[in-house]
């Protein structure tokens, strides 16, 4: 269940215009579609109606039942929806209070970088791996996602290398892809500090070690799983790396447009 306090709810409910049993400008259909698309949940499931059947009461049940991270994802998406349809209050102080609540909820995740695990191209295996990783993290079971993290990184780095004209073959291992990618970043002047370069170079050997974790300590094979704390460390580290590389790529694309 989420850690939302009664004070948090008193901030959220007027912000989302829940006073009359509604939520923003949602109809029954659009609210159902929204929750399915944004958090992969059926808001009309019976488990969300123990407080009542109105949209607002289902939202309150959702806040009570779901994890901090899932609630934060939904709130972020609700803000995007509200901005698109211009149905949010025009109150900077109120907005700041809501964003502070969301930030606090995100910090409670065992892996703060969970949102980094999103597919950057529309490929079924990439999307499925990303979804599995996020679900495992939200369930606080990161060890069950280690093999999917390996799959995700292979697809992610192959995509980055292909964009930069780096040869990609099926046989090229994860750490080799990272090595060639870092070399290209350095050659194109996209790394400003020696420390950043060292961190990225260290990631090459880190990814090489990930092969053993995948083969011997994950669900990829019939193995005993890695302990929880080390799994959190590994997934957090990879998530931070992915987020940084996505930032580099976004800047590159912006400069070329």
Automatic annotation (TrEMBL):
Pfam families: Abi_C
Stretches assigned to the Abortive infection protein-like C-terminal domain: 175-245
Superkingdom of the source species: Bacteria
Database matches in InterPro entries: Abi-like_C
Record's protein name: Abortive infection protein-like C-terminal domain-containing protein
Organism: Pandoraea apista
């Amino acid at each position: 269940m989420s850690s939302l306090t009664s004070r948090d709810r008193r901030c959220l409910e007027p912000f989302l215009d829940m006073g009359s049993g509604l939520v923003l400008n949602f109809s029954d259909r659009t609210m159902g579609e929204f929750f399915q698309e944004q958090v992969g949940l059926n808001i009309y499931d019976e488990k969300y109606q123990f407080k009542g059947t109105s949209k607002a009461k289902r939202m309150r049940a959702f806040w009570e039942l779901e994890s901090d991270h899932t609630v934060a994802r939904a709130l972020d998406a609700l803000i995007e929806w509200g901005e698109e349809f211009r149905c949010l209050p025009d109150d900077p102080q109120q907005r700041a209070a809501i964003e502070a609540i969301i930030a606090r909820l995100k910090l409670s995740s065992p892996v703060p970088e969970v949102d980094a695990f999103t597919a950057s191209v529309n490929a079924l295996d990439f999307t499925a791996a990303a979804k599995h990783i996020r679900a495992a993290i939200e369930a606080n079971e990161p060890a069950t996602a280690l093999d999917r993290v390996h799959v995700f990184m292979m697809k992610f780095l192959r995509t980055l290398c292909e964009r930069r004209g780096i040869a990609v073959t099926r046989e090229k291992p994860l750490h080799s892809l990272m090595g060639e990618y870092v070399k290209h970043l350095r050659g194109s002047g996209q790394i400003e500090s020696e420390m950043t370069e060292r961190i990225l170079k260290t990631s090459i050997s880190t990814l090489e070690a990930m092969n053993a974790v995948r083969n011997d300590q994950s669900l990829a094979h019939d193995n005993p799983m890695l302990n929880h704390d080390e799994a959190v460390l590994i997934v957090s580290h990879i998530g931070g790396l992915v987020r940084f590389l996505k930032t580099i790529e976004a800047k590159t694309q912006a400069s070329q447009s």
